[in-house]
Amino acid sequence: MSTQDNITIPAELLPRDGRFGAGPSKVRPEQIQAIVDASQSVMGTSHRQAPVKNLVAELQAGLKELFQAPDDYEVILGLGGATAFWDMATFGLIRSKAQHLEFGEFGGKFAKATTKAPFLEDSTVISAQPGSRPVPQAEPGVDVYAWPHNETSTGVCVPVERVQGADDDALILIDATSGAGGLPVDITNVDVYYFSPQKNFASDGGLWCALFSPAALARVDEIAHSGRWIPDFLNLKTAVDNSRKHQTYNTPALATLITMNEQVKWMNANGGLEFTTARTRESAEQIYHWAEASDVATPFVAEPEDRSQVIATIDFIDEIDAGHIASILRANGVVDVEPYRKLGRNQLRIATFVAIEPTDVAQILQCIDYVIDQIR
């Protein structure tokens, strides 16, 4: 195998936009223009005043439209991203015991947070090897069932469904950070569908958004008045109260709100989730079909029904160094296709988020084929 890195991919093979990262993701030019357009009216102004509060209200309404949420569901926002939300949920949504599905990095992190909490019972964790998925099991006394809709580290997708036989007041919490907006979902099957905006919403991190059911809102109130000590920043009751005023507890990044809102408007204008999920499915299917037909690559997720349509992970035979391919692609402007670092596999991880053009996905596959021919 050649060790040369100075391979030039022909221009006609290159995608128009070379960003395929699992987050932060590609941002569309129209989103940047939205910041420019708001440079005098929103940027640099108070987040407690009408211009920013109107922006937040528009974003909240747009997300309810996108997910076809019932009238009594509410869009709640806060700062810190999904990582902060795990701690907030630990304090403010779990009454006594949680059950987690762990099949990659991110489901495991939430499970660690709830297990360490001294005021909760030890969590039940149902695990599966990376590349496969576990199934939630009804368990008496569990008042929160939690799992990622899409495991960003492995490219495994898990359906969002109610847990049959669960206690009547048990809540379903879904970490939708890399799935929201790009995967099908019936929002009535979940009580808290939470996500960060740097994936399908093509914005920056540091913010979390969530759709809360009436049952989840009631649980927030219950725990907030239970006497449990909760830090102000991690208090979901504070987040709910501020969100109802179309604001966040402390100052948000306005550019993040602007770019996310612009993306949501674009999604809804083109047909909502029907449009977005068809687009991600088209992109992902190209990659999986390519890998299945290849003599050097194969989909990492063995079962087709478990494969994500927003994150595609592809293994390569030992004779083909995926890291070498990624470095050559990067030198040619096609970036962020390296695998999740802790997974430690000889693979590429290609995002197929909504902003990524399916035609560009077709181009990156041509680029990979070209590089493989050059280094074999």
UniProtKB/TrEMBL annotation:
Catalytic activity: O-phospho-L-serine + 2-oxoglutarate = 3-phosphooxypyruvate + L-glutamate; 4-(phosphooxy)-L-threonine + 2-oxoglutarate = (R)-3-hydroxy-2-oxo-4-phosphooxybutanoate + L-glutamate
Annotated Aminotransferase class V domain residues: 141-334
A Pfam short name: Aminotran_5
GO cellular component: cytoplasm
HAMAP family found in the cross-reference section: SerC_aminotrans_5 (MF_00160)
Lineage of the species this protein comes from: Bacteria, Bacillati, Actinomycetota, Actinomycetes, Micrococcales
Positions that bind pyridoxal 5'-phosphate: 82-83, 106, 152, 175, 198, 250-251
Alphabetical UniProt keywords: Amino-acid biosynthesis, Aminotransferase, Cytoplasm, Pyridoxal phosphate, Pyridoxine biosynthesis, Serine biosynthesis, Transferase
Residues engaged in binding L-glutamate: 48
Record-given protein name: Phosphoserine aminotransferase
GO process terms (BP): glycine biosynthetic process, by transamination of glyoxylate; L-serine biosynthetic process; pyridoxine biosynthetic process
Residues annotated as signal peptide: none
GO MF term set: alanine-glyoxylate transaminase activity; L-serine-pyruvate transaminase activity; O-phospho-L-serine:2-oxoglutarate aminotransferase activity; pyridoxal phosphate binding
Annotated NCBIfam families: serC_3
Assembly information from the UniProt record: Homodimer.
Keyword Transferase annotated: yes
Modified residues (N6-(pyridoxal phosphate)lysine): 199
Gene: serC
Pathway: Amino-acid biosynthesis; L-serine biosynthesis; L-serine from 3-phospho-D-glycerate: step 2/3; Cofactor biosynthesis; pyridoxine 5'-phosphate biosynthesis; pyridoxine 5'-phosphate from D-erythrose 4-phosphate: step 3/5
Source organism of this protein record: Auritidibacter ignavus
Function: Catalyzes the reversible conversion of 3-phosphohydroxypyruvate to phosphoserine and of 3-hydroxy-2-oxo-4-phosphonooxybutanoate to phosphohydroxythreonine.
